[in-house]
Amino acid sequence: MKFFGVKNLRVSTKEGKEILSGVDFEINKSETVVLIGPNGAGKSTVAGAIMGDGRFITSGSVKFLGEEILSLPVSERAKKGIFMSFQNPVEVPGITTTEMIRSVLEDKRGGFVLLDEVREGISENAKKLGTNIWFSERELNVGFSGGEKKKNEILQMLALSPKLVILDEIDSGLDVDASTRISKILRDYQKESGCSYLIITHNMRVLRHLEPTRAILMKEGSVYAVGDQKMLKTVEKNGFKAFFEQISEKGVK
Ligand SMILES: Nc1ncnc2c1ncn2[C@@H]1O[C@H](COP(=O)(O)OP(=O)(O)O)[C@@H](O)[C@H]1O
Ligand SMILES: [Mg+2]
To answer: Which class is 4-250 in CATH?
Structure first.
């Protein structure tokens, strides 16, 4: 059975402007796939469609562990083991991180989860992240700095033990030390869980301790090229524009 696959995914705005014009790619178990592309290429739209923010999906299929998930609500996708960290995590007044994690865990297990168990897990993971455990007792992301929100996303990820993790610019707003630390945490979690990553980033630092198996380059709503670490390095060094020009000169595309 295929682990995960997106096929001919098309998304439009409600005004009818096409944002994704037929995106295809697959992710295997335990793979680390990096999704790159210039601003506005459609990366966050792909991530959103996978997690359930697909209000204007006009066609396509997203299969996880053999099952079509496009028609499922976000909570069902989470239950199946997909976790996504948003580029801009939302502030949720009235609920703490601890309560949020507990409610998702209860939903997942279909039964009561002790608060002590949730707090214990959070405490362990907060240590790894180097954050204060009391952050989790504050309203979810309310008044958090950009970097604190991102760390809070990782805290939630670790608590929910996902099989497929989508990280949309997890490193934006993180200081250098925090990026490196999170890269190590991601590596360790993958080693112990065998999870797969879809990592959207403009910054190679967060990949430092990971071993990307594939890089997907998007341009203007479609997959432009699929490559490996070499492609990531070339783009990092020369930028997207130079890469596109070089490819079109060679007539490869
Ligand atoms: N709700 C929307 N209405 C209109 N345009 C949108 C909407 N959401 C995204 N877009 C446009 O779709 C394109 C892709 O956006 P996005 O997926 O966020 O790109 P990326 O994450 O690669 O920077 C952008 O041009 C963006 O402005
Ligand atoms: Mg984006």
So the answer is: alpha beta
